[in-house]
Amino acid sequence: MAEFDFSIVRDPEVFEQNRIAAHSDHVAYRTLEECYAGESSLRKILNGVWKFHYSVNPKSAPEDFFRRDFDASCWDRIRVPAHIQLEGYGCPQYVNTQYPWDGWEDVEPGEIPEEHNPVADYILDFTVPKAWEGQRVFLSFQGVESGFALWVNGEYVGYSEDSFDPAEFDLTEVLTEGENRLAVRVFRFTSGSWCEDQDFFRFSGIFRDVYLYTEPKIHIRDLKVVAQVSESLVRGKCKIDAEIVGEGQIECHLTGDDYAFHGDSEEVRTGFYKEVMEVTAPALWSAEKPNLYELIIILSDADGEIAEVVRTMIGFRRFELKDGLMLLNGKRIVFKGVNRHEFNMATGRVPDKKQLEKDLILMKQNNINAIRTSHYPNDPMLYELCDYYGLYLIAETNMETHGTWEAVGQERRAEDYIVPKDKEEWRPLLLDRVDSNYQRNKNHPSILIWSLGNEAYGGEVIYEMSRRFKELDRTRLVHYEGIFWDRSFPDTSDIESQMYTPVKEVEAFLRENPEKPFIMCE
Fold first, then answer.
1. Mode of pairing for the β-strands spanning 76-80 and 477-479
2. What is the C-alpha radius of gyration for the chain, rounded to an integer number of angstroms?
3. Is the sign of the CA dihedral 66, 68, 70, 75 positive or negative?
4. Which residues pair with 498 in a beta bridge?
5. Cis omega before residue 488 (within 30°)?
6. pLDDT digits (tens, 9 = 90+) for 488-498
7. Cα–Cα distance between 101 and 96 in angstroms, integer?
């Protein structure tokens, strides 16, 4: 396997190496008992205390820390997940429209600061469960800010940028029997950081879950479930598309609201499995009545022994755009929503299920029915809880480049400074972020609208992001406020989205432009 080359950190066209393809966020369990207990023996959580070293910039970081025999006994210890700035290494930094390196170094788009770019090195020794012997083993990072390189047992495994989407790697070929060593180098700023200029506290480090998972003899690698409802709302159809690895039998069970479908066992092998279940008069999902159906998929190996169980909750709903209005289950829908950052005053953006649930209950108590995930994909638990409690989501992609076009608006820079605009070098990175947002979150009924990101102006690249969402998903709308500032590609957004516009001006705009629904997104 090739060695890590630091030059890729400053190259916008290289944002990953050896990362596996994005997929749905379903959890695989070994048995039905595990499934209902919510504890999977097919996963091993690596959260905890790791060895840690902090450097002020890449050139001062230890060169050979990833070697298997590297002596890290004198290193510090740090919690994972956590932001390093909240663990005593550097300071949290709040900036809005400027970039966090402004005033420190003169950096052009795509480049990275060389002097003021802290590096966080992590080491963890771990073992693989004996029950996984002979099976493929993967490593999942749910959130790392903002880019990282990975080694296992001294071997370079891969690289990833994109702070708010999972990065996963196949470790099968580099693992050994007994103890293994994981080494991670996290760069605070990468070329991808130019697309992460969100208005929030700037941190770095491994701030979401890290875990190993395995593929049993037969496994669902990706799952797509589309629950459709007829125009009359009296017929429902649940379409299942599953990417299968291995061979054996599959059976699907759908239950809910006095309805039960128990599919026959079918032979399957590596490839794509499809199933369609029809439901008469389905109980519809909405914010007022978030009715959910339980889908259980059971995979058995060639000997007939259960190898994997997948459980996902689905909601039948009909969301559409007619005559400039958004309709849910045939009725006009009005968003009474909020922008919500993932944030805890003590731990920053480290996920906290109790606080999240408290937030959502408080919203429901105050007649809030919608959330924009400003301005990045959230931890998976948000989408699951919004399905359950009934909150509509505008699911935002990880993109904001406010500092580039703000500088142009203030006449401090020429228009060519704007990222991404029409620049080809940013297209693959941002289309990848669309794919990551969609693939992980596609099965959640709470998501009505995909958002391309926030405050990144306009242009051809963002239009292509919109087209990608349209190719992937014809059941939802696409949102982007930035076309208010640059209307060169008006079809980028299905929605007229503005910020802070006075009510009289909103009314005047809609009288002259009734074609699209209007959302005041901030």
1. unpaired
2. 23
3. positive
4. 520
5. no
6. 999 999 999 99
7. 12
Counting Cα atoms < 13 Å in the Cβ hemisphere of 480 gives 31
Q: How far apart are CA 273 and CA 291, in angstroms?
A: 26
Please compute, for residue 340, the number of CA atoms within 13 A of its CA located in the half-sphere on the CB side. Answer: 28
The DSSP bridge partners found for residue 306 are 300
Known catalytic residues?
455, 522
Residue pair 213/295 in contact (Cβ under 8 Å)? The answer is no
What is the C-alpha end-to-end distance of the chain, expressed in Å? 47
Chain mean position to CA 365: 27
385 Cβ contact list (under 8 Å, min separation 6): 356, 357, 360
SS3 state at 243: strand
Write the CATH number of the domain with boundaries 219-314. 2.60.40.10
Let me know if domain 319-520 sits in CATH 3.30.559.10. no
Tell me the three state secondary structure of residue 127. Answer: strand
Average predicted confidence (pLDDT) for the chain: 97
The first and second tokens of residue 1, run together, are 């396997």
The helix or strand, by DSSP H or E, that contains position 361, with its residue range, turns out to be: helix 353-365
Q: Helices in 79-136 by DSSP H: which ranges?
A: none
Interatomic CA distance for residues 409 and 414, integer angstroms: 9
Query: What sign has the CA pseudo-torsion 499, 503, 505, 511?
Result: positive
Helix (H, G, I), strand (E, B) or coil at 489: coil
Nearest CA to 154 out of 213, 50, 70 is that of 70
Domain 6-24+41-215 has CATH 2.60.120.260: yes
Alpha-carbon distances, residue 480 vs 28, 264, 430, 450 (angstroms): 34, 44, 14, 9
- Record the tokens describing residue 71, joined without a space: 């002596």
Among residues 168, 77, 173, which one has the least CA distance to residue 125?
Answer: 77
372, 396 Cβ separation under 8 angstroms: yes
* Tally of CB atoms within 10 A around 406: 18
- C-alpha dist (Å) from residue 395 to 14, 311, 379, 419, 464: 25, 22, 12, 21, 18
Q: Which has the closest alpha carbon to 203: 123, 106, 110, 89? A: 89
Query: Distance between CA 388 and CA 438 in Å, rounded?
Result: 20
Residues 322-334: tens digit of each pLDDT: 999 999 999 999 9
Instruction: Give pLDDT, residue 1.
Output: 61
pTM metric for this prediction: 0.97
How far, in Å, CA of 65 to CA of 53, rounded? 9
Quick one: which of 121, 114, 59 has its CA closest to 89? 121
CB 459 within 8 A of CB 486: yes
Query: 215 and 245 in contact (C-beta within 8 Å)?
Result: yes
C-alpha–C-alpha distance, residues 293 and 259, integer Å:
9
Tens digit of each residue's pLDDT (9 = 90 or more) over 128-140: 999 999 999 999 9
Domain ranges of the chain: 6-24+41-215, 219-314, 319-520
